[in-house]
Design brief:
single chain; mainly alpha; 434 Repressor (Amino-terminal Domain); 4 helices; about 65% helix; globular
Length: about 70
């Protein structure tokens, strides 16, 4: 099912927030990928809003960033 423009914007906003949090922690995509056992390109696609990550994927990223999932939605 195609996603709407509004949904695409929401994914881009989520990705931007993740990227800012990763950068604030001083982590590269490669370093975060290593922490969560994910491909850096996959994390990059999440940060760009190109993919809709699952809840479990987001939990892994939050664990790697040492943040709570709720921090993403503040």
């Amino acid at each position: 099912m195609p996603i709407s423009k509004k949904q695409k914007l929401l994914l881009k906003n989520l990705g931007q927030k993740l990227k800012l949090m990763r950068q604030a922690k001083g982590l590269t995509l490669k370093e975060l990928g290593y922490r969560v056992d994910k491909d850096p390109q996959s994390i990059s696609r999440v940060e760009m809003g190109d993919i809709n990550p699952t809840y479990l994927y987001l939990m892994q990223i939050c664990e790697g960033l040492e943040i709570e999932m709720t921090d993403l939605f503040k």
